[in-house]
Amino acid sequence: MKTDLLLAIVLVVCLSGAVGASRWLDHHDHDSANRFAEEQLYLRGRTARRLTLAFNGVAADWYWMRSLQYVGRKIVKFEDEHDGRFELNDLSSLDLRLLASLLDVTTALDPQFIPAYEYGALILPEVSPDQAIALLNKGIAANPNSSRLYQHLGYIYWQRKDYARAGEVYAAGAKLPGAPAWMTAMAARMKAEGGSRAAAREMYQHLYESSNDKSVKEMVEHQLLRLDSLDERDAIRRVLDAFKSQNGRCVGSWREVHDELAAAEIEISRLKEEGSVRAYHMFKFDANAAPLDPSGMPYSLLSGGCDVDLDPKSNVAR
Amino acid sequence: MAVLIVDDSAHSPSQTNLLTQTGLRVYSHVMFGQTVAIARNTFREAVRDRVLYNLIVFALLLIGSAIFIGELSAGQEIKIVVDLGLSAMLLFGVFIAIFVGVGLVYKETERRTLYVILSKPITREQFLVGKYLGLNLTLLVNVVVMGLGVMLALLYVRHGWDSLAFGIWPAILLIYFELLIITAVALLFSSFSSPALSALLSFFIFLIGHFSSDLKTLADTGTSLPTRWLFRGLYYALPHLSNFSAITATAHGVTPDKRAVAGALIYGVLYVAVLLSAAGLVFRRRNFK
After folding, report:
1. Cβ-based neighbours of A292, under 8 Å, separated by 6 or more
2. Is some CB atom of chain A closer than 8 A to the CB atom of B10?
């Protein structure tokens, strides 16, 4: 009985000591953990696939979750350093140097893992467009009937302003069985007016409709607000130019052009679950007759009333 | 065991033939009954072994944890539950097949119960086959319980019915056949080697079995004729366990092709027959004095 008690005491004391030592090590060895956090992966995708035998699926899931957590940790760190504000447009400042390797291993382990390619298509262009294109080409080679991968690849080429290549990719995707009909039209549009705002709207709308990811939908909404705001600013500039040519001077305050702005109609997009719709809207104004941008902040007059821009506090992407 | 003495001189040829057929039927029935009795006892022994219970509980816990890991996977819960569940089923199945399989013959010789069994009218082949079937039954129970666990996890994650709940079973059938081959491999090694070495060799065969396509590549790309023949021989001699891997495709909702499954099952049965025959040949010549 005494021996049992003694052993139990030794067990509890030593376990407590081990927990304390671990906590001390975690606290004091923080630098070494960070030092290896960004170290390149030891395994290449093909090697990992061979080593995992029949367990490649579960290994792919492991690398997939690692990819998500890698980006998630960077976002949390960014938010800690920037008052909790993070948007997908800020991705380029996250230093996601390992993401391409992680997704490469994930998709080498499971070449049919479409969400991994899609995730790379949305995040990697901000880090390295070439790696994003390589990942998607790999995905298309492994899944030649996935029109969504063609859509994402076309989107990346469009972002790079390579409209001819984007058009070719959409045309190739449109030929696949089950491909959405709009891909054919998008292929033609890329070739004719790839850099236009209308093409951008259409691109984002299709991205919104085809994605189930909440953060992607939010990103698309932000981009469409940006396009709406660009249209609004064009309309305001037309009113300001007309005022200047009539009066020989720029406006002193928004009240001087309130009536003209109130009469202006702007064509915008409204996103709905079943798809997007085109709509016309009128400016809204604040108490000082300043027109409001899509995020509800008043526009600012620049250059002594000859030009307009977003308010510095506006949430509309620039 | 009944001993049949047929006195041909007392009967006509047709009567003799009838008696011989009846005798064979009785003989095969008795043989089958003895084999089943050994299998049943092997199953009972395995079930009484607490290690088996621990493995089942551990596998079920792992499958349960898949649900929580799934929540970290950005919408890929179903895939992860299937991947993790079926991989756990294969991994624990392989451990059971190897570690229990290598002890099937060894434990009986160590405890000297083998001498008692073989002193009865039971052939050594019967003993081996009975032991093999007993462990197969244990594995079947394991696989079915784990499969039901994966099904329940899927239903839980989906909050309702999911077609994969049925769709996983062809992959589970293939896993079971892979385990049958591994068990036969373990039994073959244990028929002439120590448990530790048998376990090691069986594990190597499991590894090589998943690299068998590389042997074919080596055979096709070899520069000299002897090299090509060597690797071709190894390719056909070693089991092609990658034929039984359908976990990843199943996790994507792709059911294995029926003909491929049927082909793999036929291959599995034939390969097991080869292994058991080899084990029988070795075990027949083993001297227990």
Report:
1. A283, A284, A285, A286, A298, A299
2. no
